Structure formats: structure tokens, C-alpha cells
Description:
alpha+beta; seven-stranded mixed β-sheet; 7 strands
Amino acid sequence: MAKKLNFPALAPDSAGHIYNWAVSNLEEGYYPNTATFGIFYAGELAGAVIFSQENARNVYLSIYSEHPKWCSKKVLKFVHGFCFKVLGASVITAMVSAQNVKSQNLVRRLGFELKGVITAGRKDGKDCLVYQCLENQYKYKEK
């Protein structure tokens, strides 16, 4: 019997099912779909990364997960490479719930800086924090 691999793996969402699943669970805003990748852990869908690019310079990053093991150096390096090398962006923008301290800590550790607050920016009327990161600030670079 084949052993299940217990590390995150990424797969493109060509049919849009992963995107729809993630967006239906996300609280904030608007998610134009430039590209979506599913994050799989032990063979099961654990999360999704949505890349939204409305202009050449900026990529909006949205991540939804139902499993704490989604976050690995492999996934974080992929995010860097896809945003800066594939899409050619010069900045990544992430909107984080003001109540989600774990996500705030993660983006800060990755090199993102707090740029502002969108008052009542969530569907539930709570605030959103806007973080941005330049390529040279991102901590887990793809080589």
C-alpha cells in the first residue's frame, strides 16, 4: 500500500472548483481570478491561493485554508515566484481581517508592511488591514 505524503503539494485549479470553494468561505471582498492553486495535504484539499492581478504592478493575494499544515516554505516560495517571476508584479497586496492575529503575524514575518485600514471592509462590517510587500522584502524567495 502506498504511503500518503504528509506535506503540502500545489495543483492548478483549471476548472474553477477550488476557486469557488475558497471564495465561498472567505469573508472579505472581491476576488478576480487571475490564477488559483489548490494546496493539498495528505491527499486532501487543505487550502487555496488566489492570485488577482488587475494591473501589471500589483497582485492581490488571498489564501483560504481549513488545515494548519498548508503553510510551508515550499508554498511560500511558490507564492513569491508566481507573483514576481510569472506575473511580473512589483508588489503583493494582502488584506487581512483585523481580528485574524495569526494571519497578521504571518504576513509581517514574510516581509509585508501594514499600509492602512479599510474601516468596515468585511462583509460582517469589521475592519480589514491592508499589507503590501515588495519583491526585495519577501522572506521566502524562490531561487
